[in-house]
Amino acid sequence: MEGIFTYLGYLFGGETGHGPGMMVAHIILVMLIVLFIAYRATRSLRAVPSGFQNVIEAFLSGVIYMGSDVIGEKNARKYLPLVATIGLFVLISNLIGIIPGFESPTSSINITLILALIVFIYYNYEGIKKQGVFTYFKNFVHLGEMNPIAKFLMSLLMYPIEFVSHLSRIISLSFRLFGNIKGDDLFLWVILMLAPWIFPMAPLVLLTFMAFLQTFVFMILTYVYLAGAIAYDEEHATETA
After folding, report:
1. Angle at which helices 80-96 and 201-240 pack, to 10 degrees?
2. 108: how many CB neighbours lie within 10 A of its CB?
3. Which of 49, 128, 177, 191 has the largest CB neighbor count within 10 A?
4. How far is CA 161 from CA 120, 154, 221, in A?
5. In terms of Cα–Cα distance, which of 228, 222, 234, 216 is closest to 82?
6. In the chain, what are the domain boundaries?
7. Predicted confidence (pLDDT) per residue in 141-173, tens digit
């Protein structure tokens, strides 16, 4: 969106208001907002939450509830710090792009790619830590009972497919978020060009809904990938108990 003015981009990105400085400035802004939210939520903790603490606890309870259906409540709580932090960062990044004069950090493929790599590296790390390197990669493919020769030949075909499938998750996570938020920013740009002084409420509601939806999708996929990485270990533990 080279033609649209951004306040932070103008300060840090040069005369056009764009450039690497613009994106860095918006990332710092998002980080400060997330830190402020964490500070406000934990400044005066109470047994019976109220005000801002109540909002954040409702958010965290929702994240746990969402993950419980995918990975179980115990693991949903275990991975809550990762998923909730990513969720807050993505949500705030999405929402500030709705404000005229600001741009979403998640509208940059560089940012969404980093987020996708964090999830990819972490869930593989968790799978290897729980199962061991050999067992983790061995269980990429479940061929069941078959002739040893046929099983070996099938593994030669299936393992490369599974490796490519896992690597494609990086592209899936990063491009899905980037594409949707970039499209929303372009849509907002068009609306502001057509009606710069009277910003319609309907597009604002739609963009807000999309910001929350894309955050939910990113968080639920993080839980799904974590569940896949530790699923074999959990099933094996249940069978041997």
Report:
1. 170
2. 20
3. 177
4. 17, 11, 20
5. 222
6. 7-240
7. 666 666 666 666 776 777 788 788 888 889 989
